[in-house]
């Protein structure tokens, strides 16, 4: 079945460092892909999305490109802030639901 | 737009008791979803509604679980005879899908954290 695999965390970075969180997927066809973020004690917030191959989703300095050749949707940010500390989930549409990865915890230190 | 709301935010119950959670979706959204999230895992799909019709249920939704969405507005998720394995965060999400296309973006509520003792 359709699935998403994310790099394991936790990821610890210093403020202003470059961030990459890897996400690869297995699916029939080309599903829409998403990144969600979950701040401590809160629900999931949609961070960005891409609906077809080569689309680039971006929001709040984060970017991810839908790569069908490598079945990947890696999340990147050029300069992280302490406020970016959260858990990041990669997800794809499977049927009517979202299939999520296990999440990658990010801690940004001053 | 006040977003998706869930009530209660936390629930502690004893094994064997019944619990009910409520979700109020974004008002114009026609689809409503329930997910369960355990510690260190991503959310797992439980069920979804298109308006008032429950159209899909995951195998995770045992017969102790029942969900309703009367009149296509708010939804309730009831767990009967709770077990310790039911301890999790229960998340509700909603989306607007029209015709055969539409955004698959789902907007999530803050969740209800259930602890079964």
Secondary-structure element string of chain A? EEEEEEEEEEEE
Radius of gyration of chain A: 13 Å
Q: Roughly what fraction of the amino acids of chain A lie in strands?
A: over 45%
Low-confidence stretches of chain B: none
In total, how many beta strands of chain A? 12
Number of helices of chain B: 0
Termini Cα gap of chain A? 41 Å
Strand content range of chain B: over 45%
User: Low-confidence parts of chain A, pLDDT < 50 over ≥5 residues?
Assistant: none
Mean pLDDT across every amino acid position of chain B: 92
What average pLDDT do the residues of chain A reach? Answer: 94
Helix and strand succession of chain B? Answer: EEEEEEEEEEE
Give the helix/strand class of chain A.
Answer: mainly beta
Task: Write down the overall geometry of chain A.
Answer: globular
Describe what this molecule looks like in 3D:
The complex is a heterodimer of chains A (110) and B (117). With 110 residues, chain A is mostly beta strands. Chain A is built from no helices and twelve strands. Chain A has strands at 3-6, 11-14, 19-21, 23-26, 33-38, 44-50, 56-59, 62-65, 75-77, 86-94, 97-100, 104-109. In chain A, the strands form three sheets. In chain A, strands 2, 5, 6, 10, 11 and 12 form a six-stranded mixed β-sheet that branches. In chain A, a hairpin with a 2-residue loop joins strand 10 (86-94) and strand 11 (97-100). The model of chain A has no long low-confidence stretch (mean pLDDT 94). By secondary structure, chain B is mostly beta strands. Chain B has no helices and eleven strands. Chain B has strands spanning 5-7, 10-13, 19-24, 31-37, 44-50, 53-57, 65-68, 75-79, 88-95, 107-108, 112-116. In chain B, the strands form two sheets. In chain B, strands 2, 4, 5, 6, 9, 10 and 11 form a seven-stranded mixed β-sheet that branches. The chains are: A mainly beta (110), B mainly beta (117). At the A-B interface, strand 6, strand 10 and strand 11 of A face strand 4, strand 5 and strand 10 of B.
């Amino acid at each position: 079945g359709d699935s998403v695999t994310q790099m394991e965390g936790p990821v610890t970075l210093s403020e202003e460092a470059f961030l990459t969180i890897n996400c690869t997927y297995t699916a029939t066809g080309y599903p829409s892909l998403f990144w969600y973020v979950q701040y401590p004690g809160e629900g999931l917030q949609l961070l960005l999305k891409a609906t077809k191959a080569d689309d680039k989703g971006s929001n709040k300095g984060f970017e991810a490109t839908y790569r069908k050749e490598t079945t990947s949707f890696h999340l990147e940010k050029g300069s992280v802030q302490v406020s970016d500390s959260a858990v990041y989930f990669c997800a794809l549409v499977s049927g009517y639901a979202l299939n999520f990865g296990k999440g990658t915890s990010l801690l940004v230190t001053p | 737009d006040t977003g998706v709301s869930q009530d209660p935010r936390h629930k502690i119950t004893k094994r064997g008791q019944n619990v009910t959670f409520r979700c109020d979706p974004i008002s114009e959204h026609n689809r409503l979803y329930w997910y369960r999230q355990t510690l260190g895992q991503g959310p797992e799909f439980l069920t979804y509604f298109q308006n008032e019709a429950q159209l899909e249920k995951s195998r995770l939704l045992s017969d102790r679980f029942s969900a309703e969405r009367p009149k296509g507005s708010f939804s309730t998720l009831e767990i009967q005879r709770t077990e310790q394995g039911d301890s999790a965060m229960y998340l509700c999400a909603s989306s607007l899908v029209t015709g055969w296309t539409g955004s698959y973006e789902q907007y999530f509520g803050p969740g209800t954290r259930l602890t079964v003792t």
